[in-house]
Amino acid sequence: MVVPTASNVGAEKPYEIPFFDFGAAGEEEITTVDGGERWRELCDKVREACETHGCFCFTTVKAPLKLREGMAEGLRQLFDLPVETKERHVSPKPYRSYLGKKDAVPYLESFGIDDQAPDVDDEAALKAFTALMWAQGNPEFRESASEMRAKMLDMNLLIMKMLLASYGLVTTLSHAAADTTTSYFRLMKYNVPPAAAGIGMVAHTDKSTLTILGQNDVQGLEVQPKDRTDDSCWVQVVIPEGAFVAIVGDALKAWSNGRVHSVRHRVVLRGEKERYSWGSFLAPKDDATVEAPAELVDKDHPLLYRPFAYADFLLYCSVSKLKEDALKVFAGLSTSPVDDGERSNLK
Ligand SMILES: O=C(O)CCC(=O)C(=O)O
Ligand SMILES: [Fe+2]
What we know:
Elements: E1 19-21, H1 27-32, H2 37-52, E2 55-59, H3 65-79, H4 83-86, E3 99-100, E4 108-114, H5 124-133, H6 139-166, H7 170-180, E5 181-190, E6 198-204, E7 210-215, E8 221-223, E9 235-236, E10 244-248, H8 250-255, E11 265-269, E12 275-284, E13 289-290, E14 308-309, H9 310-320, H10 326-331
Parallel strand pairs: 1-2
Antiparallel strand pairs: 2-10, 3-4, 4-5, 5-12, 6-11, 7-10, 7-12, 8-9, 8-11, 13-14
The protein binds 2-oxoglutaric acid and fe (ii) ion.
């Protein structure tokens, strides 16, 4: 397969997505620094990034170097296990079972592990997963993965709260999140392609609400800028050392009444080193209804998507095999303007 070159690879000035240093920002700011100026500014910038780019990079003191190194080493050990062992991880849910080097994505291997509930510190699924992979146990893997999962979920929920705060919706929606939101943790390895470049993950939009990705020191994530609709325009996101990437998904776009952008992205492998990445995916619970809150609908912002059950959307995506416009075709109302930026190539 010919891999279209990202327009900025080797360019002097790389395409830059917004970058935020969240420092130690956490839950407490939202409740105690009520309306604090710096906090409000950060929330607005996060919202702008989600609207304009559909993604941004950030650092947080919550995930120090030692934890990131432990995670990458744990993943190396995990993916080095025999295929028969890795294949023991099966789930009826999409993107959870072990996926090994399929035709469409021959260099990718991945696992998905469900969380029990976003606000509960419940490590049962990760414990069971570790025991399934290593009969003799692997406490280092379990501890790193467990801590990383929890920190990334914290950041995921924090970013959602920043977005809600910037839309002025803190009080109306924060209580609802735990009832309607779930999350899962995805572990990925991209093997080195034999040619100079290879597609690690095909172009897609995330169906879920918000994704946070961490990676080892091998770049590869590419995005399609919002204003570019031709398939030849891809730009590499240069993720600073130790930073994470947040990516807006289709469910959040629908919920926001089209305000935020679910950015199309893919992974292209260009080097000689394996790429490891890990993602925290926040998603509506299967039976939750994805629906724009009344505050985000008015005469200047008519309702763009009909309310829908998230599970029905996922089912539609997998059955229809629709490569583009899945959200718009599935739930778009006639009031929706033509939105070429919203195209989704299903994984
Ligand atoms: O590995 C990455 O950096 C991207 C993964 C991704 O896009 C996904 O799992 O949806
Ligand atoms: Fe993705």
